[in-house]
Amino acid sequence: MTTQTLKTYTFHVVGMHCNSCKILIEDVLNEQMGIEHAHVDLHQETVSFETSLDDSQHKLAEMLTEKIKHNGYALSVEKKIKEKVGGVMWQALPIGLALLALFFIVQKSGILNFGLGGTVTPVTSFIIGLIASVSSCLAVVGGLVLSLSATVSQDKISDVKPMILFHGGRLISFALLGGALGALGSALGISFTVTAILGIVASVVMIVLGLNLVGVFEKNMIALPSGVFSFFRTVEHKTIAPLLVGVGTFFLPCGFTQAMQVAALSSGSFMSGLLIMTAFALGTLPMLALLSFGAASFAQSKHAPLFFKSAGVLVIGLGAFALLAGLAGLGIIEPLFNI
Q1: 180 in the same domain as 50
Q2: Roughly how many angstroms between the first and final C-alpha of the chain, as a whole number?
Q3: pTM of the shown model
Q4: Whose CB among 31, 98, 163, 280 lies 3.0–4.6 Å from 125's, allowing a Cys bridge?
């Protein structure tokens, strides 16, 4: 019997953002006949795999691109120079500023309290959750959702129950642990000064995340080590597993989550902390739920850059006003706005 020789190829990948992208590409390529051991290197933006196919590199790149292009990815033999996004930024700036102005108008009307004066409210948390769900949460939690989905699919069982357990565990843990943070803040007797300082910390985190979204930094997504995702791909499917994964997302290094955790701590009460973190988790739910059932390709669509940058402008604006409010509360600067 003749053993077929496997050849190893490495291609450059266009369109990747985070570990969610890594998992999607690896899963799709590994499903293709004649492709084995596909591995994506996020930092180098490459994918390597072994194949028994006799096609040329250019032909393979073209063929496999057809399998992943609907999610916004493409393979190439040579590294492609990224297109400039200055045009997108100029489109995003007025959109983000318009949304920010709309928030101020609604805030002044008294219909809703967005907490633009320095105190984070559940409404603010919900809005930030919506933004986080297609940025840092998509990178961190989204990767875990895809890993869990892959595990469930391999077990050839319905993905409804484990995903309900995952999202249920996430909502419950965010609510209870958020309340615990608020209660801890109350027990510690956090003073107004400490509360203002914590608010400044949260606002600085928001500004940095907003700058990430508009593309100021080279890597705009927080990513966990690939070993974490490999673990959830191989974990034995049990009822308790998706529930524990959902609970564990409270402790993952998502900047938006950490900013809201600081806000919950500084709220100084169990109920306020519970509402802040519950609203944030509910804000992240729609996109993560879509991702759970394989319907979320927006993050890789052609409209994603405009959305990310518009959201980034909005987040920078919210963070900046919260920062100014915190500094004014400490008496460092005079209040610039009467929000």
Answers
A1: no
A2: 79
A3: 0.67
A4: 280
